[in-house]
Design the sequence.
């Protein structure tokens, strides 16, 4: 439930309330989820939880509203009061989710497959984009099961801001509405339990149950509500499997996510420390401080499961750079996040050039840091070299491709590969 609000005649927001059966979770999820998506690097709407005295609202005469039943009705004081009654209270103030209107000229949602025919810059089919395919793992972390076309928006950003429909300009892509994150209680308990493990209509699961007469115990059958935290539904880490997680409907980009796509997102998510998560959760402005602690812990433990799965197959070594005349340095994100005990990380490196191959020494440092001193092999013209680094934990190594420019000029890093 909600309505549009103009502040000062210019700033435009959508104000939404929570549901009585799920106090505070949807509005908090919208604000926290948008902030996390933004921190990862996606465009999102600006979402805030605000407490407002309803007396400040002034109704413009003649307002209308068309509900989901298709019937248009007056939006008068009675209609406004009906919405406000759903909102949580703090004294005389009511709790709302304030969603800032997007800038530019709105074009409608983007799709998770194909390209926009009206956007010449949109050249990679969306089902093949790593950012959209890797988004599956971000959605899994937050249990954002409603990540679909309808919760996205494209906007034309004209260079001339006074004429939003004019050219030149560009299309900006937004993720919207994370309010279904962190658990959602449906009228049917069976759906609430299955969300994240099975599609709403999952023919594979239906077929398996038909063949086995339902004898197989499913993960969702073991799920339980957490006493005192029922507003989060079945959101937890115990039955969470990041590899198995599914959203509400089949998503063409999510369904095509590869090991490389998921590992790419896992390397980004590994940057979220517990202190970061706690700060983000505070944006939800929960009345009960125990809700902050519960949500922080669940997100932390779900993230640990993601990192344990996706930083141990492909190499988790990242942030590679050349320092000085011949030092190749980077960060082992798996060691930095303690995915395995320190003793499990045993580094081995070698360099291959036209002169042959040679073993190299890896020096470890704090916070997952490592450096390798590279010997110069070029004589005259720059020489092409490949440095292979294994950390003893991940099944695959990291391959760094460089040009040796010679003594005094150092090395130039030109590419990275992570073989499976």
Sequence:
């Amino acid at each position: 439930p909600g309505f549009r609000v103009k502040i000062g005649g210019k700033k435009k927001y959508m104000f939404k309330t929570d549901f009585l059966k799920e106090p505070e979770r949807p509005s908090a999820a919208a604000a926290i989820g948008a902030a996390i998506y933004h921190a990862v690097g996606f465009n999102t709407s600006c979402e805030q939880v605000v407490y407002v005295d309803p007396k400040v609202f002034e109704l413009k005469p003649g307002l209308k509203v068309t509900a989901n039943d298709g019937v248009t009705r007056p939006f008068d004081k009675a209609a406004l009061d009906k919405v406000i009654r759903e909102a949580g209270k703090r004294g005389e103030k009511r709790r709302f989710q304030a969603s800032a209107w997007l800038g530019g000229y709105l074009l409608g949602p983007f799709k998770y497959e194909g390209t926009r025919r009206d956007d010449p810059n949109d050249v990679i089919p969306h089902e093949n984009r790593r950012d959209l395919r890797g988004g599956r793992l971000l959605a899994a972390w937050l249990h954002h099961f409603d990540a679909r076309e309808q919760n996205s928006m494209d906007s034309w950003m004209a260079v001339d801001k006074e004429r939003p429909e004019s050219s030149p300009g560009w299309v900006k892509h937004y993720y919207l509405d994370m309010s279904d994150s962190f658990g959602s209680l449906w009228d049917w308990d069976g759906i609430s339990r299955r969300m994240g493990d099975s599609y709403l209509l999952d023919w594979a699961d239906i077929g398996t149950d038909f063949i086995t007469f339902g004898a197989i115990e499913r993960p969702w059958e073991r799920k339980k509500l957490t006493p005192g935290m029922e507003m989060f539904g079945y959101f937890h880490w115990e039955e969470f499997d990041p590899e198995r997680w599914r959203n509400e409907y089949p998503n063409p980009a999510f369904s095509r996510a590869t090991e490389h796509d998921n590992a790419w997102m896992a390397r980004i998510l590994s940057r979220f420390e517990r202190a970061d998560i706690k700060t983000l959760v505070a944006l939800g402005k929960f009345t009960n401080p125990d809700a902050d602690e519960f949500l922080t812990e669940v997100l932390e433990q779900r993230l640990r499961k993601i990192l344990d799965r996706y930083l141990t197959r492909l190499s988790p070594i990242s942030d590679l750079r050349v320092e000085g005349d011949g030092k190749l340095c980077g960060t082992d994100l798996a060691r930095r996040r303690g995915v395995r005990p320190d003793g499990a990380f045993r580094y081995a490196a070698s360099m291959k050039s036209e002169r042959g191959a040679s073993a190299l020494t890896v020096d470890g440092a704090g916070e997952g840091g490592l450096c390798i001193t590279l010997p110069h092999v070029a004589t005259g013209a720059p020489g092409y070299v490949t440095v292979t680094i294994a950390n003893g934990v991940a099944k695959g190594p990291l391959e760094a491709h460089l040009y040796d420019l010679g003594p005094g000029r150092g090395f130039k890093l030109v590419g990275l590969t992570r073989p499976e």
The chain has ten helices and 20 strands. The first helix runs from residue 25 to 40. The mean pLDDT is 94. Residues 312 and 394 are 4 Å apart (CA to CA).
